[in-house]
Specification:
Oligomer: single chain
Shape: globular
CATH architecture: Distorted Sandwich
Length: 199
């Protein structure tokens, strides 16, 4: 954590054999500060034109699908929950959002960034990394049986996760960029979460 209210997470790795590697974080955010308040009213912007649809097993199927004219289009800021109940096969499979948005040019590891804002509190979170994807997850499986800090309980869709990462399921999809780390190479993935107050 630095003096600019940034939480920087840096992953470094080497391997003595060629291996698949994709490290990320899975933090739960609710910028209201109240676990009883749903962050589905938070405004979200994701700078990406495509996402990864998943199978019924919730694994990406190898397709890069355009977000245009779909509930996955967050190129312009709008409420996280404004389309979460839309009649969309992908949302039905995962019970909400649990999909990876990817950069327009995955081969160049184009960054995907996101901004989450709670207009009631003014709190804003910006997230980005040097990886080509960012997973949006809306706490689809949370329940009151799930406890957080100070023993607070959660509700379904009570948090939002923004997880910068490599393209999921890359080892099984030849069209996706490789997630292999070779002998002698260094893996480096840096995530930056930036916190601020917006008037």
């Amino acid at each position: 954590m630095n003096d600019d209210n940034e939480l920087i997470i840096r992953f470094l790795a080497t391997s003595d054999t060629t291996t698949v590697l994709n490290l990320t974080m899975h933090p739960y955010f609710n910028l209201s500060g109240d676990s009883e308040t749903s962050p589905l009213d938070h405004l979200l912007e994701i700078h990406s034109t495509q996402f990864l649809p998943v199978s019924t097993t919730k694994i990406p199927i190898g397709e890069l699908r355009k977000v245009e004219n779909s509930p996955f289009d967050f190129r312009k800021s709008h409420k996280v929950g404004s389309q979460i109940e839309a009649a969309d096969e992908q949302l039905e499979i995962t019970g909400g959002y649990d999909h990876c948005s990817v950069g327009d040019d995955t081969s160049s590891r184009n960054r995907v960034s996101a901004i989450l804002w709670d207009s009631a509190s003014g709190r804003e979170l910006g997230g980005e990394s040097n990886a080509p994807g960012i997973q949006l997850y809306t706490g689809n499986h949370l329940s009151r049986a799930t406890k957080g800090k100070e023993d607070r309980t959660f509700v379904k869709h009570g948090t939002v996760c923004l997880e910068p990462q490599h393209i999921p399921n890359a080892p099984n999809e030849p069209a996706f960029p490789s997630a292999l780390l070779s002998i002698g190479e260094q893996y480096e993935h840096q995530i930056a979460y930036r916190f601020s107050i917006r008037d």
